[in-house]
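User: Some background: our group keeps a shared notebook of sequences we're curious about, and every so often someone picks one and asks for a predicted structure to add to the entry. Today it's my turn. The entry only has the sequence so far, pasted here. Could you supply the structure so I can complete it?
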Amino acid sequence: MAAERGARRLLSTSSFWLYCLLLLGRRAPGAAAARSGSAPQAPGASFRTFTPFYFLVEPVDTLSVRGSSVILNCSAYSEPSPKIEWKKDGTFLNLVSDDRRQLLPDGSLFISNVVHSKHNKPDEGYYQCVATVESLGTIVSRTAKLTVAGLPRFTSQPEPSSVYAGNSAILNCEVNADLVPFVRWEQNRQPLLLDDRVIKLPGGTLVIGNATEGDGGLYRCVVESGGPPKYSDEAELKVLPDPEVTSNLVFLKQPSPLVRVIGQDVVLPCVASGLPTPAIKWMKNEEVLDTESSERLVLLSGGSLEISDVTEDDAGTYFCIADNGNETIEAQAELTVQAQPEFLKQPTNIYAHESMDIIFECEVTGKPTPTVKWVKNGDMVIPSDYFKIVKEHNLQVLGLVKSDEGFYQCFAENDVGNAQAGAQLIILEHDVAIPTLPPTSLTSATTDHLAPATTGPLPSAPRDVVASLVSTRFIKLTWRTPASDPHGDNLTYSVFYTKEGIARERVENTSRPGEMQVTVQNLMPATVYIFRVMAQNKHGSGESSAPLRVETQPEVQLPGPAPNIRAYAVSPTSITVMWETPLSGNGEIQNYKLYYMEKGTDKEQDVDVSSHSYTLNGLKKYTEYSFRVVAYNKHGPGVSTQDVAVRTLSDVPSAAPQNLSLEVRNSKSMMIHWQPPAPATQNGQITGYKIRYRKASRKSDVTETLVSGTQLSQLIEGLDRGTEYNFRVAALTINGTGPATDWLSAETFESDLDETRVPEVPSSLHVRPLVTSIVVSWTPPENQNIVVRGYAIGYGIGSPHAQTIKVDYKQRYYTIENLDPSSHYVITLKAFNNVGEGIPLYESAVTRPHTVPDPTPMMPPVGVQASILSHDTVRITWADNSLPKHQKITDSRYYTVRWKTNIPANTKYKNANATTLSYLVTGLKPNTLYEFSVMVTKGRRSSTWSMTAHGTTFELVPTSPPKDVTVVSKEGKPKTIIVNWQPPSEANGKITGYIIYYSTDVNAEIHDWVIEPVVGNRLTHQIQELTLDTPYYFKIQARNSKGMGPMSEAVQFRTPKASGSGGKGSRLPDLGSDYKPPMSGSNSPHGSPTSPLDSNMLLVIIVSVGVITIVVVVIIAVFCTRRTTSHQKKKRAACKSVNGSHKYKGNSKDVKPPDLWIHHERLELKPIDKSPDPNPIMTDTPIPRNSQDITPVDNSMDSNIHQRRNSYRGHESEDSMSTLAGRRGMRPKMMMPFDSQPPQPVISAHPIHSLDNPHHHFHSSSLASPARSHLYHPGSPWPTGTSMSLSDRANSTESVRNTPSTDTMPASSSQTCCTDHQDPEGATSSSYLASSQEEDSGQSLPTAHVRPSHPLKSFAVPAIPPPGPPTYDPALPSTPLLSQQALNHHIHSVKTASIGTLGRSRPPMPVVVPSAPEVQETTRMLEASESSYEPDELTKEMAHLEGLMKDLNAITTA
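Assistant: Of course. Here's the predicted structure to add to the notebook entry:
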């Protein structure tokens, strides 16, 4: 019950917090939507929200004057803050190196000292502000036009006039339109104050209404546009008294047609004069305008009409009516009102999935009708198969892909202005439902995706998708319901399809739930499409079916090309095209489609035609067009004809010549210059130009001059001195004369120019630096009365006197070439004539840095090779085809080498540079596959990466121990444990085995630990016959082909307590918690200490049994000795011969002990069958699994225990067998390599106590791999067979005697032979093991080699421990077992010897031993043995037995 109450309390608490989270979840989306300005998302949905990104301020059209400063405002909002850049005329501005243009902190563009001249207009143009956020996209502002007012030029000037008092007067002063704001008037050289009676019209004309005497005087208009003021001619206005007579009513100023933009102010000028003074009224559409009560309509002084804040309703025809009672006059003018583009519907943000079709809507209005273009992330959207403009302004994107995501802007533009509006497209993952949005944003093909999905099972893939009908232009697909929903009544389906090789997918949906077929239309013939089908239920989209590849049918029933197509020009704007019926119509021709395209463009247009000819109208004049025709039948379009080209007829030019200018030469001549009309307006070949000029003072006759079509200047002579002339030029074609330019005025000099003095300083000098050139432009001196013969330009780095260039007086600009980049030049300009050079004008400029890269790329290196040098080093070599044949590098190129490994997969490349054709890559991982590639760089040019080369580094010894070492007890076998581990993390090669070390003393030397080899890559191993209730410590090291790795940390494990009797009927003693394993071999047989009483009792029993056994053995041996053959006698003689010499001391017996071959890699005990055959055959020898099955031979004397230990120590490793309880120090399988045997027997060593020091463990300078071994008998501490002669004891030598074997083979007499005495100096106890014959000497694989000694190796058994408490002896010197001094020897056949245990027999163990000495020496040994053989051997043996019994009694009593 308590648990139930706790569960309920937890449930109620969880419900409360869940309710709170739901409340927060409902509020959070709404808040996010409010911030982002988008629709809130459904609770639980996981998708990105729209990011607010828009312009706060956009630049506007600006008028400036030369030398002033301009700010184009721009500011954008986004989180994070956007990066602002500027474009001028569509090209990004480099504001970093621009000293006049700079970016303000808010994003505005500041231009200081605006530059503007006739031939240099760097600041005038169209500007756009570009805002970018890296993670979102880019938006572009509207286009703003910066206009710089030109030099003042009067198109009309005030003229002397008179006015009757009370009447109105006007004084004309018209300048270029951009200078009108800078015009002001002066009366009698004093500024004129304007008021309601005296006004200035928008064009600059001065109107004086209700004139009084004070209005008389001299008037002139002044233009102040930044430079020196420009004054017009002065004109006198006389105010006459009222004559009181009538005069005719005339218009001094009439209204003219005007075009204004909504919101602007407009003035319709209308000034009339007459007596009596007329009254002015205005009408529009036959209605009199009420200027008295209207706030927007104002009647200005003189009668002009001002309309404020113009609207579209103000457009129309206006009538100015002047009436003075005697007569009425009227004038009319048309007011056209234009409207800037405005958005009726702006694009909206859209969520979509990949493969969907979407539409961005954009509805605009304006007058004239705006054109619409679309921009995505700042780049123009070019219509294609997947991006289409529909319904004039809307953008349709078909088959969305992830890269379509971003900001889309709709730009609307007309003659008045431009505007932009944008929206964001976010493409969601397929598992994220689309929130509800206005359905107009998506096409009908994708509206099924709008419903937000709920959680629940999704349908599996539709089954058996097939193309049931394949045509040329459509494919019908059918399928079966998914296996997850066999009925499928509520399922809808989406068919995704794409052209093969195209990344974009389109989608087509079924029209109603449960429908399992779709017809996909508008496909291309003979085209491969990939289809897949997905089912949707109320929870969302399910799995996709497997892709289905279908190819549409080719269209073979289509019409051929229409023959005999021809075209000819009918007029300057029309061309007629004719053709005939196709020869292969393949049925009735339904209609034709005529395609035409203007030459030089890529926009082809078409028109449908039902007959065999068609006349195209509205073409451009004198323009070449190409035409082709395609015939259609019921199957579709046929084969197109070849293109034919024709040019429309020429016409008179539609525009005047350009850039008309006048140059006064002297008092009687002027030079006139011009440029041809724009190419699009020439309408034919220009055959000539017509120049017309006249005096400007009065309506004089017009003089005409004709020049040829290639001439662009003409000298007009015979003019009057000091006279103003008007000039205009028109272009001619064979069709007639085109429109003329506006009149341009200039005045001849009063007198010829002065050349008695040097010219004055030029009025201006401008420089524009480029990378290796500077463009210099200037204007002539202000004083035009002094002759200028030319200009001298001096320039140099730091000084203008380095070089000088002279140009003609007509030249106004010059480009200085061949300059150094990034250099500071000083430039001077002087005008000169025949008298000399004038005053110089100085300017400086810094050429731009050289940033133009060489467009030709470098060739990548070839022949890349990877040579493995070691475990961490690879040499990369390559060739460079861009070098000469000798591949010698003489320039500054360098190479970049990169490399990586694919494990793990996300590894990054590492790079290094090299100046040669090879590179040594170091620091690599061992036994790892790397890929390498190379690129070459020269200056700013780089190649692509070369083809990759691969290489695997060599192996290395493991550098980390095995991991996760665990020890567990085996169920049902408490003495058996299982060791488990994991491979080392840094194996550095293929693991070939493991070695398990274990000991009861964690602090023991490592060579005192017992080892267990594990072959292969096994990760578990069993160890048997351990002592119960004993703590063990385990370590593991791994090995590969290169050697042994580090050991793992020691892992402790305590074996279970005994549950019954242990051993052979005896209980295992408890070792105690404070027990430490002994450091020497003075242990009990099982390696565990016993009490003094048990030891003595056990020792008496063992000695008694041993004595009886030895007596029996000796008797049997004597009996067998008497029956030996002569061959056996020779063998004994050979042994005695060895014993008898001064070199080979000690007793010798017949049979040699078995030879153990330790293999370096497998650590497996194998015998070598050495037969007389020169090619011996290796055979396996059955070896007992436990050392209990092996009878060791005692190799001790006088209670000194000499044990051969083994340990693994790098390259010099020793095999030791520890004295652990319950475990024998014999490894299960061991192989010992003996590549050669000495040509003579080697003495065995007598253990001498004085040699007990570490230096006698092994000779590090001479032993390749020394080893020592211990063999123990578990059943009895007594040696199997031991015989010590009296002479042995007297001479402190040892002899090993054999015990009869139970071998049943014919030659089964087990014999031991020749255990020799060791030289005290140990000179012969060391030798070289020729293991390098089998393995690479550089490898450090630990091998179980044997300590060098006699080639006939003996097994050593520890002596009987003395009774009493356990004692710990220091490590005793080892007995050398093997000495090898020759590499080649004869191999002899040796009988196998069996070694058994007391009380039971084992099967024979065939062992192969090394060869005996060579034949000659063997013969001598046999002869010596025969001569020295004693017949009273039995007596000696008995004496030997008596001595042994005395030793045993002494040991027992002790």
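Suggested note for the entry: The longest strand covers residues 328-345. Residues 248 and 274 are 5 Å apart (CA to CA).
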